[in-house]
Amino acid sequence: MKSALPVVVVVVVIIALWYGGAAWLNSPWVHDQAARAGHEVSLPDLLVATMQQDRPVLPAPHQVIAGLYDGITGQAISSKRSLVYHAWVTLSGTVFGFVIGTVLGIALAVGIVHNKAMDLSVMPWAIASQMIPIIAIAPMLAVVMNSLGAQPIVTKAIISAYLSFFPVVVGMVKGLRSPDQMQLDLLRTYNASANTTLWSLRLPASVPYLFTSLKVGIAAALVGAIVGELNQAAGIGARLLSGSYYGQTVQIWATLFMAATMAAVLVMAIERIEGVTLRRMGMAR
Amino acid sequence: MKDTTQNAGPVIEARGVGLTFETGDGPVHALKDVTLTISKGEFVSFIGPSGCGKTTFLRAIAALEVPSEGHLTVNGMTPDQARRSRAYGYVFQAAGLFPWRTIAGNIRLPLEIMGFSRAEQVERVHNVLQLVDLEGFGKKFPWQLSGGMQQRASIARALAFDAHLLLMDEPFGALDEIVRDHLNEELLKLWARTGKTIGFVTHSIPEAVYLSTRIVVMSPRPGRITDVIESPLPRERPLDIRDSKAFIDVAHRVREGLRAGRSDEE
């Protein structure tokens, strides 16, 4: 529990700064309103007014929490206003894309390690592919997928896979190449084939590297799904965009918090699986 | 497994074996003109300073390196054929156990690759764990064992599939003196019990003299054999034979051989 105190102190400082920032950024509007009505605003009234606006420039923490609470518990789960509904839509796209990206990444890594031609040709393309901004591709991809008659989740999954396969390729290539010369020599003395070496040595040795990549990959997949939803009807991305259109800053912030919570939960879930797996494999640190 | 080594015929035959590494700084003559015959059941030690080619020669026998010249056969076949017919077990300097497998799992590794049946695997693992005195440790992971025990497990792994030739590259080098003495004794008992042919690389003169029937002294630049000593010591050797005169004489001769090798290059 001694590690809780620093965390609590930091959180308190952040909230204090946030309230201060909210008061400062929301006050011009209060001054404008007061000037138009023709009367002065005292400081205590000013502070209270900046914390209760409908469309604040910077929502205060309690407003965000209220928005979050309302979005999660105050709406029917299937309604368009429910954060749970939107989170679920995003989550399904994320996980679908993440699985595809991981499988693709592992397959590419195995190919790169075993085939010289792939080693020289695939990596540059994989790196180059990550340079293209997703925001530019997402609308094009959505149009193409729509014309093919695919469900909106497919567009999201493709973007998620696109963003999450790269960390998996990089991590797995390192992991598959991690066994040292002595272990490889050992398998040579047994006259083991490349396939046997892959399954008995390279793949198990790469598991720690895989999990590291998965943690990066799932966060990237979530971002990909959100970006993919920007032009769609449902999901965290859609909600963010509609909040932006209608100036609903509290809605935007509440949705952002929901996305952040999702990311934290997903990464923690992978960490849990990693812990269990490594312990069972005798490789727990 | 059937005894594929004929009663006659040497296990290892080397004639004029040479091995040159082409490096950025010019050719390195790791081995030059090595001629040696090792018969079935012998315990041959290779001793010499760093760079004398002893490990390179062992690896050439194991087909992990290819000689640039000369003639080398193992069991009458080329080293690579012998490797493919799984004729030998190799013990490296470090235990090299896979951390994600239990000790039993590690010993099962060659058995799985070579296609032994499940029942045979279990039986062989049990027998070989008994042989190296690690009974009951089958379910542990390597990190739970000490360095000496891990090395014993590595030896067990090399013994599991009944190869008649055992190649050991400084297997006890990383261990302390007391564990080393104990393992030396265990190795001799194992050798007496199984009758295998053993090629053993070491840095330590007492170890070489204690364990072998024949000691090959090598020296570097270029890697070559300086002396081959037939050990007069009896096969049954308690540890205190190391204080006997015969032992000290052999050790002296080994030391002379090493010194001669060094003065050659000066």
Structure description:
The complex is a heterodimer of chains A (285) and B (266). Chain A is mainly α and 285 residues long. Chain A folds into two domains: 4-58; 83-280, MetI-like (MetI-like fold), CATH 1.10.3720. Chain A is 79% helix and 0% strand. Chain A contains eleven helices and no strands. Chain A has helices at 4-37, 43-50, 61-73, 83-114, 116-129, 134-147, 152-176, 181-189, 194-228, 236-245, 249-280. The longest helix of chain A has 35 residues, at 194-228. The radius of gyration of chain A is 25 Å and the shape is elongated. The mean pLDDT of chain A is 90. Chain B is of the alpha/beta class. Chain B has two domains: 1-87 and 164-266, 3-Layer(aba) Sandwich (Rossmann fold); 97-162, no CATH class. Helix content of chain B is 36%, strand content 24%. Chain B has helices at 54-61, 79-84, 103-113, 118-131, 147-159, 177-194, 205-211, 245-264; strands spanning 12-23, 26-38, 43-47, 69-74, 88-91, 165-169, 197-202, 214-219, 224-230. In chain B, helix 3 (103-113) packs parallel to helix 5, helix 4 (118-131) packs across helix 5 and helix 7 (205-211) crosses helix 8 (245-264). The longest helix of chain B has 20 residues, at 245-264. The radius of gyration of chain B is 18 Å and the shape is globular. Residues 1-6 of chain B have low confidence and may be disordered.
